[in-house]
Amino acid sequence: MKNWLGNKIKEFYPDVDFDVLMPPDERLGDYSVNLPFVLAKKNKKNPLDMGKEIIKKLTQDKEFQQYFSKIEFAGSGFINFYLADEFLWKQLLEIHRNRDLFGKSKEGNGKTIIVEYSSPNIAKPMHIGHLRSTIIGDALANVYEELGYKVIRWNYVGDWGTAIGKLIVAYKDLKDRIGKDGADEQFFGSDTTLGMMGNYVRYHEVYQDDDKARVEFKKLENGNKENVDLWKKIRKISLQELGILIYPSIGVDSKNMEFKGESDYEPELKSLIDGLISKGIAKESEGALIIELENLQPALLRKSDGATLYMTRDIASLEDRVKNYNPAKILYVVANQQTLHFQQLFAVAHKLNFNDPELVHVKFGMVLGEDGKKLATREGKVVPLLDVVNKIQEKARGLVKQVKLVNEEFNDDQAREIAKAVGIAALKYNDLSQHPYSDITFDWDAMLDFRGNSGPYLQYTYARLMSIIRQVDKIDDGDTGLLIEPTEIKIMKKLLDFPDVVIECSRLYTLNALALYLYELASASNQFYEKVRVIQDKNIKRRNARLLLIEATATVLKRGLNLLGIKVLERI
User: Fold this and answer.
1) Domain range for residue 202?
2) Among candidates 253, 99, 120, which has minimal Cα distance to 565?
3) Which positions fall inside the DALR anticodon binding domain (predicted)?
4) What is the tens place of the pLDDT at every residue in 402-447?
5) From CA 109, how far away is CA 351, in angstroms rounded?
6) What average pLDDT does the structure give for the chain?
7) pLDDT of residue 205
8) Which long-range contacts (CB under 8 A, 24 or more apart) does 210-216 make?
9) Residue 129 has pLDDT above 90, yes or no
10) Largest Cα–Cα distance of the chain, in whole Å?
11) CATH number of the domain that 28 lies in?
12) How far apart are CA 23 and CA 36, in angstroms?
């Protein structure tokens, strides 16, 4: 509705930029625009005179007459708009009738968007930083699909570089000491990355000198069969673990991901570098190859020893995306610490005339513990993602049992599934409800609070609404004109905002507006639940209208939570 209002006023004033706001106090209207102030400043007139002129023009329009009960000038140079109850009643019927499509858009039809997120390193456990990238990127991809875009979920895996050389050194050391069969058993016996990582950590202290790792990696680059076979096995096991264990543990479907590795671009680097040199874009400096950039540090493409870098492979990957996918946008969901890298990459893209796709670095901050310090193990090391997931699941199981949320009719397996869904919801909502640029705090108890601003609270609200709907066989059309309670009016107004909020998320590359919207809708729904009789209402037409309101609200809650990657629970 907010976007509709702005676009509608633009029909009358196409050359004027103004803001459409939602006043914090409902007595000041449902929407407010600063158009009188803007026009008065532009035309050097009195805001009051401009306000009267604007209101006269708008109130002659049939849609404004139908949608608003009052349009009035506010002394500060704003015009306030008050939605008409009759309009809300009609809109509720429309929303309910089209509830499975409400909020969807054709805005992105015919356009492709690439969202790069997660991007773990093979043979290493995903850590807490990967969690943020995965949660944010997955939700943004959901939003763009909702708006009609063809979304490519790009998982750019770190499967190349000296770190792979270290693993090869560790494996060969084992093989020399206990033979190939023993080395295979110890290194790959568990068929998990965690097993390989244990070996990596164990032998890393022995091989502080990276020279051996560089030598083994160079052999890999040169096609040494033993190293290539070993690398392929490590990569295969790592990717299998991601799809079977890691992503399912956080409620992320990896089946639609486009897995690309840095190694995929290795064969193209020589021709890429030769092209950059021939075009005069890259040049040598002290034996290294760089690209000089205006107001930025030079981008380093090749070190003096001939080794290529992450930047080189990123340029090759960008070229692949632009030429083979023709995206309108490419989003890189990567931590704040990589800001300089992406500034350099985007500057290089400009030099290469890759101007068609809009390139966006979706930054995010660190994860902090309850003490306000970076979340880390007792040894000061990065926290593995699975450790976080296991902890939240354990706490969720205890909470569900403690507060007796699970009905006795559920068996143990069902109760575990509910606890798992609650834990994932707590984890995701805690992240997405905050601005991604900021650091987030892991307050475990607050994340799982069924009475506060949390994922479990939203799941509980949805289940509460569904418990009402299950009490009736069929929801017939009711007389929505009987919905006059303040809580009912509040919910109907809030439902109208859903499409605008989805669009706002896509334009700002953040999800916190959607999380806040769902919390406010859930809060209004719980107020309604406490104050209004539904099933017991003897006025059948009003009862049916309230059931329509409940079903429309539950559907919007479900669809909004699904956009955030959170599973709803029909029963708790």
Assistant:
1) 159-255
2) 253
3) 458-572
4) 765 555 567 778 788 888 999 999 999 999 999 999 898 888 888 9
5) 29
6) 89
7) 54
8) 210/162, 210/165, 210/166, 212/165, 212/169, 213/162, 213/163, 213/165, 213/166, 213/168, 213/169, 214/162, 214/165, 214/307, 215/165, 216/165, 216/168, 216/169, 216/172
9) no
10) 91
11) 3.30.1360.70
12) 16
| Cβ contact 483:493 at 8 Å | no
Which of 206, 238, 255 finishes a domain? 255
Q: For residue 40, what are its two tokens? A: 């008065």
pLDDT digits (tens, 9 = 90+) for 469-495: 999 988 888 899 999 999 999 999 999
Amino acid making up residue 176? D
Q: Which of 160, 152, 161, 149 is nearest to 322 (CA)?
A: 152
Residue 240 confidence (pLDDT) above 90: no
Does 219 reside within a domain? yes
**Mind listing the pLDDT tens digit for each residue in 140-165?**
999 999 999 999 999 999 998 888 88
Kindly state the tokens that stand for 422: 């609650």
- Note whether 83 and 4 are within 8 A (CB): no
* Domain annotation covers residue 10: yes
d(CA 222, CA 59) in angstroms, rounded, equals 75
Residue 559 lies in a domain: no
Q: Report the distance separating Cα 316 and Cα 346, nearest Å.
A: 13
Residue 125's pLDDT is 78
d(CA 535, CA 472): 8
Least confident of 22-31, 202-211, 553-562: 202-211
Under 8 Å between Cβ of 158 and 129? no
Q: Which of 410, 379, 381 is nearest to 397 (CA)?
A: 410
Question: Looking at the domain assignment, is residue 349 inside a domain?
Answer: no
Helix (H) or strand (E) run with residue 224 in it: none
pTM over 0.90: yes
Burial category of 95 from C-beta neighbours within 10 Å (exposed 0-12, middle 13-18, buried 19 and up): buried
Q: Are 553 and 497 in contact (CB under 8 A)?
A: no
Question: How far is residue 103's CA from residue 99's CA, in Å, rounded to a whole number?
Answer: 9
| Amino acid in position 540 | I
